[in-house]
Design brief:
Blueprint (H helix, E strand, L loop, with lengths): L1 H15 L11 E7 L5 E3 L3 E3 L5 E8 L6 E7 L2 E8 L4 E9 L4 E9 L5 E8 L1
Antiparallel strand pairs: 1-9, 2-8, 3-8, 4-7, 4-9, 5-6, 5-8
């Protein structure tokens, strides 16, 4: 009786910690830093697993009035893209994309070397 209770107690603790749960994944993040004078910057690849989404964050200081564009790559091939325009500090914060499982990265391009930006992608 005592052994059965102890086994059940340990199984309950392991399940509450996510051990043995195949759909529980830790978030992974990759960042970029586009400094003035640079024309592009990229993140490294991260893996988006089943049940996760891709989160994008970009913070831009646009002093040139020229757009900053970004492309999301899936396994090295362009998947989707977007752009930021404006004359002040602009941001894409917390944009969430539902994507199929796979490896993703992001590359940010500046039409002017006076722009700067930082940010990244995260799977969760």
């Amino acid at each position: 009786m005592k052994k059965r209770f102890l086994t059940g107690f340990l199984v309950a603790i392991l399940l509450s910690l996510g051990i043995g749960n195949s759909t529980s994944y830790a978030a992974t993040t990759s960042t970029f830093n586009l400094e003035k004078g640079m024309s592009s910057a990229t993140t490294s690849r991260i893996t988006v697993s089943s049940g996760q989404k891709l989160h994008i964050g970009i913070y831009m200081n646009n002093s040139s009035k020229k757009p900053l564009t970004y492309t999301i790559f899936k396994s090295g091939k362009a998947y989707t893209s977007g752009s930021l325009n404006g004359t002040t500090v602009r941001k894409v914060d917390g944009k969430v994309i539902s994507v199929p499982t796979g490896d993703y990265s992001m590359r940010v391009y500046s039409a002017s070397k006076t722009n700067s930006a930082y940010g990244g992608i995260e799977s969760r």
